[in-house]
Amino acid sequence: MRAVLLGVAGLVLAASAFAKDKPKGAPPPPPEVVRPPKDPWPSQYKPYPGQVTVIRGATIYDGAGGRLDNAMVRLEGGKVAEIGASVAVPAGARIIEAAGKYVTAGIIDIHSHLGVYASPGVEAHSDGNEATSPARPEAWAEHSVWPQDPGFSRALAGGVTALHVLPGSANLFGGRGVTLKPVYGRSVQEMKFPGAPYSLKMACGENPKRVYGGRNQLPATRMGNIAFARQLWSDAVIYKRRWDDYTRRAEAGTAKPTDAPRRELALDTLMGVLDGEILVQNHCYRADEMTNVISMAREFGYKVTAFHHAVESYKIADMLKAEGICSAMWADWYGFKMESFDGIRENIALVNAAGACAIVHSDDENGIQRLNQEAAKAMAAGRRLGLPIAPELAWTWLSLNPAKGLGIGDRTGSLEAGKAADVVLWSAEPFSVYARPMQVWIDGALMYDWGDPKRRPTADFELGLPGVGEVK
After folding, report:
1. For residues 440 and 448, what is the distance between their CA atoms, to the nearest angstrom?
2. Which segments of 259-398 are extended strands (E)?
């Protein structure tokens, strides 16, 4: 008993001493507040080392709609340091004479399935559609990405410096998309574009109703698509309200960590959309369905960042401009199913002419290697219609507009001082079928060189196989 009393006395003395040491008037410790993590799988990407490089004498399409003839650009410290008629040339800089050649901002593909539908295209690599429920927002594309997909090096050789990998369109809510750099890493995290927002892949139209209607379950119709999606958004609003209420009480010191709502990974993603932190990339073909989705977004308080495929965007281009919604489109794919029947070659040009955000995307492991030619086809179709589209303007469809659609337009997408040195040197006018990238820089590091076999990245998977890299 005496030992117990002495122990209690020791605790009292210790508490008393602590009280004496504690500064008078010190604020109480902040309350412990539980919060769902915003980025639990952060980027581990580290830029490759580069050197100060000056390209001079080139025609430059800066990605923001500008053109400079016989101009220069300096890459330094991973950034575009200077661009103009003349730039400073530091001692020891690598100088590239580019008279007769063209320089552009790197191509950004806002819609790719590289890594989740990897090459070789076999069932073992088919990891893009978690087609077990019409709503799988808890699934993340990055957890399916195979970092050794040979397609990444092919995209790089096509002038691509960033790409957005999405789940497929079997589900109304397919899961989260991720923005990557086409540089090989041991993990997908080593390829992730640092700080790029996550996206939520949504889909409307034929694909979800075909997949799940074929199983005799909801949704089997377009009205079923919207009904299912509205219910899930309604659930997400309630989930967010619970977290907001808990957070207010916890910050006021009236709620304990154990009062926090149970985390639902699917609803975490939707709450991120409602909070404006996760961008909605919505697969949708028909104009009427896009307007339905816009109405649904208004009902539940979220925003669609871009409609993808969007072959009927030309019918509602004014609405898309007013809503600030981008359209990621093909140059001439149409008619392969009923919802693509009204696609026209002038779609991209008409969206652009309306002042809306026009983007050329691939959705294809081969098309991503030739996006410059896809944009050229769209530009030509617009010109035949009587729309005078300058090539430097058309380049925004491949660079700054997709960068904006991915929430990274402040860091890349155009050759402006302070932005990432994501740059392509072309052998000829980049909209020519004869043009090809000669050199590609990512964050100022030379990642691809047509004239140097050692700078043509090859996936580990290809090593030891007959024909490696571009030989195939």
Report:
1. 5
2. 279-284, 304-309, 326-329, 357-360
**CA–CA separation, 398 and 130 (whole Å):** 29
Are 240 and 275 spatial neighbours (Cβ–Cβ below 8 Å)?
Answer: yes
Q: How far apart are CA 216 and CA 222, in angstroms?
A: 14
d(CA 72, CA 63): 15
Both tokens of 116, joined, read: 């989740």
Chain Cα centroid distance, residue 467: 32
CB atoms within 10 A of CB 143: 14
Residue 79 sits at the vertex; the CA angle it makes with 73 and 82, to the nearest 5 degrees, is: 30
pLDDT digits (tens, 9 = 90+) for 409-461: 999 999 999 999 999 999 999 999 999 999 999 999 999 999 998 899 999 99
At 215, list the tokens: 């199983």
What's the pLDDT tens digit per position in 146-163?
999 999 999 999 999 999
Q: Beta strand pairing status for 304-309 and 326-329?
A: parallel
* CA dihedral of residues 158, 163, 165, 170 (deg, nearest 10): -70
List, in sequence order, every residue forming a beta bridge with 53; answer none if it has no partner: 75, 94
Alpha helices in 214-302 (DSSP H): 222-251, 265-274, 287-300
With 60 as the cut, is the pLDDT of residue 406 above it?
Answer: yes
Q: Running DSSP on this structure, what letter comes out for residue 124?
A: G
Residue 5: exposed, middle, or buried by beta-carbon count in 10 A (0-12, 13-18, 19+)? Answer: exposed
Residues recorded for the chain: 472
- Other Cβ atoms closer than 10 A to 123: 6
Residue 17 has pLDDT above 50, yes or no: no
Kindly state the average pLDDT of the residues 76-90: 98
CB 103 within 8 A of CB 61: yes
- Element of type H or E holding 6: helix 2-21
- Over residues 19-51, the pLDDT tens digits come to 445 556 777 788 899 999 999 999 999 999 999
Q: Whole-number mean pLDDT of the chain?
A: 94
Question: Could you count the other beta carbons within 10 Å of the beta carbon of residue 270?
Answer: 26
What's the pLDDT tens digit per position in 119-132? 999 999 999 999 99
> What's the CA gap between 431 and 393, in Å, rounded?
12
- Report the percent of the chain where pLDDT is more than 90: 90
Helix (H, G, I), strand (E, B), or coil: what is residue 352? Answer: helix
The residue type of 409 is: G
Residue 121 main-chain phi, psi, to 5 deg: -80, 70
Nearest to 172 by CA among 130, 208, 206, 141: 208
- Pairwise CA distance, residues 198 & 369, whole Å: 24
